[in-house]
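=== Structure Prediction Worksheet ===
Name of assembly: unnamed complex
Input type: mixed (protein and possibly other molecules)
Chain count: four
Listed entries:
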Amino acid sequence: MINFSDIKKSLLISVWFMFLTFPIMVIRVNPIDKIVEWRWLNMILVGAASFIASFAWKHYFDKKEKGKSVKTFLKSGHTVFINNIADKKRFRLSFAFILFASAIIFPFIFSAYQVNIITTALVYVVLGLGLNIVVGIAGLLDLGYVAFYAVGAYSYGLLNHHFGLGFWAVLPAGALIAALFGILLGFPVLRLRGDYLAIVTLGFGEIIRITLENWNEFSSGPSGIANIQRPSLFGLELSLQSAAVYIYFLMIALTLFTVFVVKRLQNSRIGRAWLALREDETACEAMGINKTKTKLSAFALGATWAGMMGVMFAAKTTFINPASFTFHESAMILSIVVLGGMGSVSGVTAAAFVLILLPEYLRAFSDFRMLFFGAILVIMMIFRPQGLVSGARRAYRFNKADDKI
Amino acid sequence: MDNLLSVNGLIMDFGGLRALEDLDLHVKKGEILALIGPNGAGKTTFFNCLTGIYRPAAGDICLTTPGGSMSIAGLPPHVITKKGIARTFQNIRLFPNMTVIENVMAGRHCRTNTGIAGAIFRGRAAVKEELEVVERSYEIIKKAGLARYVNELAKNLPYGEQRRLEIARALATEPLLLLLDEPAAGLNSRETKELDMLISEIRDLYKISILLIEHDMKLVMSISDRVAVMDYGKKIAEGRPDEISRNSTVIKAYLGEEFVA
Amino acid sequence: MGKRGRNLHRDIILKFNFDSVRFMEYFFELLLGGLTRGSIYALIALGYTMVYGIIELINFAHGEIYMIGAFTALIVASLLTIYGFHGVSILILASVAAVIYSSAYGFTIEKIAYKPLRRAPRLSPLISAIGMSIFLQNYVRLAQTSDFLPFPSLIPEFGFMRDYEHIFSSAELVIFIAAALIMAMLTFLVKLTRMGMAMRASAQDRKMAMLSGVDVDRVISVTFITGSALAAVGGVLIASHIGQINFSIGFIAGIKAFTAAVLGGIGSIPGAVLGGFFLGWAESFATGYVSSDYEDVFAFALLVLILIFKPEGLIGRSKANKV
Amino acid sequence: MLELIDVEAHYGNIRALKGVNISLSEGEIVTLIGANGAGKTTTLMAVSGIVPASAGEILFMGKPIHELTPDRIASLGISQVPEGRHIFQRMSVMENLHMGAFTRRDRKEIKRDLEYVFELFPVLTERRHQQGGTLSGGEQQMLAISRALMARPKLLLLDEPSLGLAPKIVKQIFEIIRKINREHNTTVFIVEQNANLALQTADRGYVMENGSVVLSDECSKLISNDKVREAYLGI
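=== Predicted Assembly ===
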């Protein structure tokens, strides 16, 4: 399989990468103390890694190219497919039950620290599902999603700080304000083509962050808002420990709610319009679908979840500042959607857990987290643009008499 | 008058280039009208004006619906579809990653109105409407002979079936007038014959008018009630198929002068 | 009118005259500062515009190429300083290293992250580019440092500029002249050379360029290399002027340069230059007369407004969509 | 000179060419006619290497070219005038012509060919500094042909040269095609919908339907063939 010319090619590639990374990986100068540090080991590592990577790259690339020319159309697989789904359904149900049961027991077995981590992961699950509506289903690349997250967080922070409003009052209010922002920002930008839309949403995200950073009278600037109230249980103030568990259960409920809503939306008239919009805008309009309205609804709905999670985030950490809402946060949520598979609920959920928990549990990994996210985006686009779990479409069943479902 | 669609003095320019010049065309209720002409004569441009993708520079497009006559020139595409004009595209534009039935269901969008709340809470009205959408869509799919592909992704369909699916999807919008842009392009003769039957069936079953652009003369001659010929953005002839095939202007436009032997 | 009154009158006149001198000086300071800023933006914007012109991709990682150029220059300059080199020789060697490395990165990035996606849906290469940008930032952060590093001021001070130094520094003069020279060279390359003709042809009609015998893949590579080299020069000049860099400088600079490119009509080379200067002045005056806190907001707001209301840019052409 | 042997090509999932066999000898004018979507343009694009042949062989002067890149194929002496002309809109007429000679480095000869082209189409002489996009349809077609000639092709591929042009100009263009063929012994391969004119100009013709060649003969015989007449106006 591996022949001489391949090895030669890989060697050349590895030499090229050693050259390319030489100044940045090998040399480190301290300009003040005038000390030069030579890290030759890095060069060897880069050389070895790129040698191996080039083989893997070639292998997968050839495989992908080959896969393209082979037709995947199955003519007789139709009935088998339906049976499969029926089987899967039973399996899925028991799987879901086990998952649910372990989620319930979890906080009573593990420490508050662990519970907190899972809560964070759940927040990202919901954020991922929210962004998935916009990017995955409706195909609108939103790079400023974090802005709506910030809007939610600051809604709670400010309303709590100034008016003493509680968590339960602000949760819907924050969602609503974020949705309003979604529509407000959405209106002018929705005429734009895909890549311009991406840049403009990025711009909006940054505008909101920088404004929060500089408008001291409004948002207390970079120092942020502290001492935000935790959610209360029927008016009871909870201890730190039990508050963590309480928030954990709230998040479980919210996640289930989100999954439920997204699933329902996906297989509805609105969901089909979003999908159609992603697939072909012109054909979509020709089918009588109002482009503007459909885009706006996706934008607003995506923003709603971000707003809700913003409130949740503020309540969980009791402290917010603009540094939590940088573009990197948007990029991370986007990675979740891309890795999970655009449009797939289970994929996005799994990806959020992997991407949030991995750096938490592999401390060594957490330094490399953003590096890893960047690489994921590139590699996924090249080798598996449909994500790890491709969004399977719902199969409709009609009986032999060709009647309804 | 039993005109479903009347186009008067339609003009369309592209940066100084006149693509349509003072075009008049009338489609009667229940007829199949074929629009033929050499490549670049402006046929597809005309379709794009009718469906709102282009905004004509001048002229009037009038559609007679059960609710009365109205001008539709310059309206946005989704509104025009709702008024009753549906179309297919010259180079198939399906929703490739949606299933066959979802493609057709997307066509039902403009005839239904469940909103976000309805989709989430699935009230009685929403469920009823969704059931109706599924049923109607399946009905159309069966009619188009695509029943065995219901849950297949559109992109996995053979080419000929994709053409039929596009027609099915357009039909789901309940049009009064169906525009078909070269429906037989790329089909073999068996598939073309099947398409011939499908188009006539659709007209009889749904009592709609059909305007089609086509290069396959056999198909044009066999299914159309009338034929209009375009050249250089102008209508150069109109009449029954047998008249058109004898018309010397048409032969000249199509085959060059010397062919008129 | 008593004596006292007259004095007061004179005071007011004097004060007014003094203020108007200050006012004009301040105005010129901002004007020239904007010119410097603008030339840097223009240099980076050219890379965006050239790449967009040919493959219709917003090369999100372009800002990072600029950052890597600055970092390479910093490393080389520090090394040379330690080994006892002086002044202008450092500037030249560091710039050459920066240009070589940035070009190499640009070339490699295109091969890895964009070339495999030539036929993919539009958003795929964009997401890939965003990934690349994040990757490169963190690569530099991990391999070097996340702190701000002091960048030696490599641009010498000229004696003849001493009197004007408070309005327009030598460094600014060098930046402006270097940028102008490079842009003139680029114009020459694109207008008059065979490669330039191939670039323009590929940008206008890729298929026809191929039919005419243009190796479009090579043209794309050359475009990336040229754009990256320009960004590297921009990186060295600005870093040496501002005096410090870190791994994240590419992001904001990239966005601003992109704004400049869009402002002038993306895909158009004179447009990028014009947009760069426009943005430079706009920012300079806005921070000078309004508030410096919102400097970046200002650029973003301009970007958003342009994209919404005149996406074809100030001197660009609009494209009809084809069905 | 050019030989297509069982060539197949795909556009995504669609099999656009289903085993095409065509051969051209040196100095011939050959035409390929057929309805829209029959695969005529795809055939030309396969020869030029823009659409890769997924099966079969394409030989040019005895050597396989189906695995070469488009620029290599062009430099072998195959020039194409694509459907819709594809003039470089924002380049002047002169620049467009120089693009045609992109693969050549012999400046003097290029100059001579420029003169020849301007002789062939005097209109272009007046317009030489005008932007390509501002020319009329007919002038653009003339420019497109001139541009292809600037490569000094051994084989000239023309895709629907009559498209969207007034009959008078079409006639003029076909005359010039014949002239080029005569004067330089350039082999010409014309894809046309305007069947009659193409059949009158060419020596031999192929008729294409659904991605395969269904008929091939001398043009004089094709012109009186009932099938051809029927296919073109359903007579």
